[in-house]
């Protein structure tokens, strides 16, 4: 067990989640001033002694993404220069994760750039949830713990849906996740053959698997503009699905996403609070947000105590 005291700090991206994590751990959120100078530069002052402490910084990639990323980097630097023993960046939603490869000439691999920035700033470890692409863990030269949202979403599905379920992956990249859920739920499995016409534009072309007369649950790591989700809903209903629901880890919900969901035939969208819901989304009766604090607090406690966190992954094995 670590002999160093544990402290948790947070930027401005999702302070409510950080406070819930602290409540779970029966401790107070660390004192830190995270604001802006008059010219817009990030201002950080750590308001308590962290020398020799095991520090966790909770900061999600919420909008405005670049501002929140810069807050994280500056906080890590401040803690490093204040002689913290270990700094773990708790990033519930890892921004820029979709830019994880060169899919066309002369484009960056920004997910790797962000990894380099966080490491160079002084982080010793990363704790995140449902990375868009698992290989992003390899972009870091420090340990990365990528939690799954399944301990949150699976119980909800079990409690609210009966037999006749089919778990649907909206693209080929999510098949492994959908298959793991389907196996646990003893449900059917389907895949949508999706081709992307442009950034944030997708067209669902074909459904592989039996969905007729079944309750379809679309499973994904994030919902951004909701274009893919709405197209998937249309295709599933056209193929005879009884109704369509969605369970998604990260509720980015940018642009017209909430209006699209409200005006669609999608019955419900279940998300976690790795990202704070915008006011419009929070009022949408179709959107339900589940807490992730218990999962993060369990992981933080295990990391601090130098215990294995493998039990948090077993639900998908």
Describe this structure in a few short sentences.
The protein is α/β, with parallel strands linked by helices. The protein has helices at 15-24, 65-81, 110-121, 150-160, 175-185, 227-238, 257-262, 279-283, 293-304, and strands at 6-10, 32-36, 42-46, 54-58, 86-91, 125-129, 144-147, 165-169, 188-198, 201-208, 215-223, 243-251, 268-272, 287-290.
Report on this structure:
With 317 residues, the chain is of the alpha/beta class. The protein has helices spanning 15-24, 65-81, 110-121, 150-160, 175-185, 227-238, 257-262, 279-283, 293-304; strands spanning 6-10, 32-36, 42-46, 54-58, 86-91, 125-129, 144-147, 165-169, 188-198, 201-208, 215-223, 243-251, 268-272, 287-290. The strands form three sheets. A seven-stranded mixed β-sheet has the order 10-9-8-11-12-13-14, with helices on both faces. Strands 1-4-5-6-7 form a five-stranded parallel β-sheet, sandwiched between helices. It has a two-stranded antiparallel sheet with strand order 2-3.
